[in-house]
Write a structure and sequence with these properties.
Blueprint lengths: L1 E5 L7 H17 L5 E5 L4 H7 L10 H28 L2 E2 L8 E5 L21 E7 L9 H7 L4 E4 L2 H11 L4 E2 L10 H4 L8 E5 L7 H12 L2 E6 L13 E4 L3 H9 L3 E4 L2 H9 L4 E4 L6 H10 L5 E2 L14 H23 L2
Parallel strand pairs: 1-2, 1-4, 2-3, 4-5, 5-6, 6-7, 8-9, 8-11, 9-10, 11-12, 12-13
Length: about 350
C-alpha cells in the first residue's frame, strides 16, 4: 500500500514541517514493511504566496518595498534552512494523487476557510482518505461543497474538541479528538541542535500580545537571565530593543535546540506550547485574541490551564509543573491518539 500525507509541508513554518515529519515517522512505524508512506509534494498557491520572497500585496507602496528589501536576506536564509530540513527529513512523493492508495489529510490548518483550496478538502480524490488531527485554525466556514467532500472521508479526527463537536453535528457521525502529530514521536532530542547560549528565557511569539516582551525583560532582570527571541524574519523595530537577543531565520534543528535548553519559555504559539511540554520545560502561554482554542484545548486536556496567562503570576520560574497526574494525562492523551490513528489505517 502506498500512503500519502497531505499537509502544509512547504510552509517555512516550524510547526508545519515538524508536525508533518512526526506524522510521517509515526505512520512509518506502524506500517508493514511492504507499505510505503510519502509526503504529497503539493503546494497551494495561497501558501506559496505567503512564504515567497515578496508576498503579493494589494497595491505597492514605497515603504512596503523598502521593508521587503530589508527583510529579504533573512527570508532567503529562512527558505534555505527549511528546504534543507525538508530534503533531509521528509520523504517527498509526487503530487499525482491517484498514485496513492490512501491519503492522510492533516494536521495543520488544512480546513482554514481563508486558504480556499479544495484540494485540502479532498476534491478529485476518491480512494481511501482519512483526516488526522485536522484543524481549521479557528476560522471555519462550512459550505455545501465542503460538507459533501467531508462526507467522502472514511475516518476523521480533529485537533480541537470544539471543532470535533462542530463537525460531528454537521456530518452526523463520530469524529474523534486527537493530539497534534508532534506528540506521536519522542525522538526530538536526536535532531535538536543545541545553541551556544545557556541560562536564558526564550520568547517565541506568533500572535501578538501586549505584555509578553515587557514581562520577559522584567523577569530576566530579576533572575539575571538573557532574553532570546526566535523569529522568522528581522523586524525593523527589533533593531532598537537591545534588551532582547534576536535569533532570526534559524534552522528547524536550532529551533528545537533553543526550546530544549531554555530555562523558561514564554510563547503565544501552539507549537511553542507543544514543544515546551514535549521537552518538559517550564513555560507560560500569553493570552491572544485569535486562534486561542487550539492552545486552550491542549492545556485543558493535560491539566495545565493555569499556565495560560495575561502576566507572569510570580517573579520566579515555575517549578514542579509536571506532576504525576500531569504525566499521566499526557501519556493517556498520546496513547489514545495513537490508537485512533492506528485503527484508522488498520481498518482500511
Amino acid at each position: 500500500m502506498k500512503i500519502g500525507i497531505l499537509t502544509f509541508h512547504n510552509a517555512d513554518n516550524y510547526g508545519a514541517v515538524l508536525q508533518c515529519y512526526a506524522l510521517q515517522e509515526y505512520v512509518k512505524s506502524i506500517l508493514r514493511k511492504e507499505d510505503k508512506v510519502y509526503v504529497v509534494n503539493y503546494w497551494s498557491k495561497k501558501i506559496r504566496n505567503i512564504y515567497k520572497l515578496f508576498p503579493q500585496k494589494n497595491g505597492l507602496k514605497f515603504k512596503s518595498i523598502i521593508l521587503d528589501l530589508y527583510r529579504s536576506f533573512h527570508t532567503i536564509k529562512r527558505n534555505i534552512e527549511f528546504n534543507n530540513f525538508r530534503k533531509k527529513y521528509l520523504d517527498l512523493g509526487p503530487d499525482v494523487f491517484d498514485d496513492y492508495d490512501l491519503i492522510i489529510y492533516g494536521r495543520d490548518q488544512i480546513w482554514n476557510s481563508t486558504i480556499k483550496d479544495d484540494i485540502y478538502w479532498g476534491i478529485n480524490y476518491h480512494k481511501k482518505k482519512i483526516a488526522y488531527s485536522a484543524s481549521c485554525g479557528g476560522e471555519f466556514i462550512i459550505s455545501d461543497k465542503a460538507l459533501t467532500l467531508l462526507n467522502e472521508y472514511d475516518k476523521i479526527s480533529c485537533r480541537e474538541s470544539s471543532f470535533t463537536k462542530q463537525l460531528s453535528m454537521l456530518l452526523k457521525r463520530e469524529i474523534y479528538t486527537t493530539c497534534d502529530p508532534v506528540f506521536l514521536i519522542n525522538t526530538w532530542g536526536k535532531i535538536a541542535a543545541n545553541p551556544n547560549e545557556v541560562g536564558y528565557i526564550l520568547l517565541y511569539v506568533i500572535m501578538p500580545n501586549h505584555y509578553i516582551e515587557d514581562e520577559a525583560i522584567r523577569l530576566g532582570k530579576i533572575l539575571h537571565k538573557k532574553i532570546v527571541r526566535i523569529d522568522w524574519i528581522n523586524q525593523v523595530n527589533y533593531l532598537f530593543n537591545v534588551k532582547i537577543h534576536n535569533r532570526i531565520a534559524i534552522s528547524v534543528e536550532k529551533f528545537l535546540g533553543y526550546i530544549a535548553n531554555a530555562d523558561l519559555i514564554l510563547t503565544t504559539s501552539f507549537h511553542g506550547t507543544a514543544f515546551s511540554i514535549l521537552f518538559r520545560k517550564p513555560f507560560y502561554v500569553f493570552k491572544i485574541n485569535k486562534r486561542m482554542d487550539r492552545i486552550i484545548d491542549l492545556l485543558n486536556t493535560i491539566g495545565l490551564s493555569q499556565l495560560y496567562v495575561d502576566k507572569i503570576p510570580s517573579n520566579k520560574i515555575p517549578e514542579q509543573i509536571y506532576s504525576r497526574d500531569i504525566e499521566n494525562n499526557i501519556s493517556e492523551y498520546i496513547e489514545y491518539s495513537k490508537k485512533v490513528l492506528t485503527s484508522f489505517i488498520g481498518n482500511l
